[in-house]
């Protein structure tokens, strides 16, 4: 997540920016703590499971702890990998995104239904974002391919010897499909969508753009209100 000018933003907006910016370190500390302190005793739970005792407390507790440990190890691996490959962008899990959104009254959705303002400098940051497509391909496999039709299928079936033009087109399609945004509910077109139960808190005008990768998201950019954009301020002042 690139550093953006915050002097024109309210304290609340700056607080949201900081929560997203610091989320990666927070998640890494939590995963390291889980890995360090989780001590699994496989012997008895495995014996019970092999005999069919799937619902006894010892087996269920062991399974839950094992899943928690595995998730922590995978998340830690993703953080360390993305830190090395993408030093400009912070990593965040969907679980942490939901926590921040709930705390500040934001919602999380595709950029295709976002109708708010995008400052010029943040648009450039999004356009300049580049990623190894192998880090996003796992997400693509879970998507509804039919919405893109035969064009998308054709793009993804190209060999490594594709032309530069086709490669750029392929990357653009992938970019569109992986961009998400956190913003107030009023900045989304809600027709045809569903909201999974979440308490509505006082909204903060603080869009944060993320890119879906295996294991979570990379935070690309964030901004405050339309009035804080330098181009808009210049137009007003002139």
N-to-C SSE string, H for helix and E for strand: HHHEHEHHHHEEEH
Helical amount among residues, as a percent range?
A: 40-55%
Shape: elongated
User: Describe the biggest sheet?
Assistant: 5 strands, antiparallel
**Could you tell me the strand content as a percent range?**
5-15%
Name the strands of the widest sheet in spatial order. Answer: 1-5-4-3-2
Put simply, the count of helices is 9
Q: Specify Rg, calculated over alpha carbons.
A: 21 Å
- State the low-pLDDT regions, or none: 139-153, 197-204, 227-238
Number of strands: 5
- First-to-last CA distance: 32 Å
Structural class: alpha+beta
Mean pLDDT metric = 77
Structure description:
The chain has a domain at 11-21 and 89-237. The chain has a 5-stranded antiparallel sheet with strand order 1-5-4-3-2. The chain contains 9 helices and 5 strands, in the order αααβαβααααβββα. Helix 1 (11-37) crosses helix 3 (57-85). The protein has 238 residues and is α+β, with helices and mostly antiparallel strands. The protein is elongated, with a radius of gyration of 21 Å. The model is unreliable at 139-153, 197-204 and 227-238 (pLDDT under 50). Strand 4 and strand 5 form a beta hairpin. It is 50% helix and 11% strand.
